[in-house]
């Protein structure tokens, strides 16, 4: 049985899509080949890597990349995780099933935090929401 190929698409491929890729690799590695990419490439957000490591998932080796770099991969599913990516999804990706599952933007939420721990709490909440989606909902989208 071949693995299903899933792409998590975000604006900058720095946080939400990276967490989704990490969770999918961690939970569904035998059944799903996970990718993440962005409309732009902003680099891996260190706070995203930090809170994922707290949860036992190391994404520090993942790299921020442009969606165009995956043009030759026959994807089964594209999950847009932010509104901008949903509205600007590159046309070549629409050969796959495309669904939008929006998550809050942790860097934006954390911008006005009173402390580093309060800022990280925003990342932790979104991390946990993405984990729930990957565990509970993602497999059904591949049926």
What do these coordinates show?
This is Arsenate-mycothiol transferase ArsC2. The active site is at 10 (nucleophile), 16. This protein has helices at residues 16-28, 46-54, 83-87, 106-110, 116-141; strands spanning 4-10, 32-38, 77-80, 97-100. It is an alpha/beta fold. It has one domain: Response regulator (Rossmann fold), CATH 3.40.50.2300. A 4-stranded parallel β-sheet has the order 2-1-3-4. Helix 1 links the parallel strand 1 and strand 2 (32-38). Helix 1 (16-28) crosses helix 5 (116-141) and helix 2 (46-54) crosses helix 5 (116-141). The protein is globular and about 45 Å long. It starts with a strand and ends with a helix.
Radius of gyration based on Cα positions: 14 Å
Q: Please report the first level of CATH classification, the CATH class.
A: Alpha Beta
Mean pLDDT: 96
Shape annotation: globular
Q: Could you list the spans in which at least 5 consecutive residues all have pLDDT below 50?
A: none
CATH topology: Rossmann fold
Span of the ends, CA to CA: 14 Å
Name given to the CATH architecture: 3-Layer(aba) Sandwich
Write down the secondary-structure element order.
Answer: EHEHEHEHH
Q: How much beta, percentage-wise?
A: 15-25%
The tally of helices reads 5
Count up the domains. 1
């Amino acid at each position: 049985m071949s693995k299903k190929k899933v792409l998590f698409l975000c604006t900058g491929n720095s946080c939400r899509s990276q967490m989704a890729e990490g969770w999918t690799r961690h939970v569904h590695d035998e059944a799903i080949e996970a990718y993440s990419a962005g409309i732009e490439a902003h680099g891996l957000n260190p706070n995203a890597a930090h809170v994922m490591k707290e949860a036992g998932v190391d994404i520090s080796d993942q790299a921020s990349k442009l969606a165009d770099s995956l043009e030759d991969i026959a994807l089964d599913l594209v999950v847009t995780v932010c509104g901008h990516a949903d509205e600007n999804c590159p046309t070549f990706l629409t050969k796959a099933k495309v669904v939008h599952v929006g998550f809050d933007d942790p860097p934006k939420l954390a911008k006005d935090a009173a402390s580093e721990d309060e800022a990280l709490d925003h990342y932790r909440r979104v991390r946990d929401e993405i984990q729930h989606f990957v565990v509970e909902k993602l497999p059904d989208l591949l049926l």
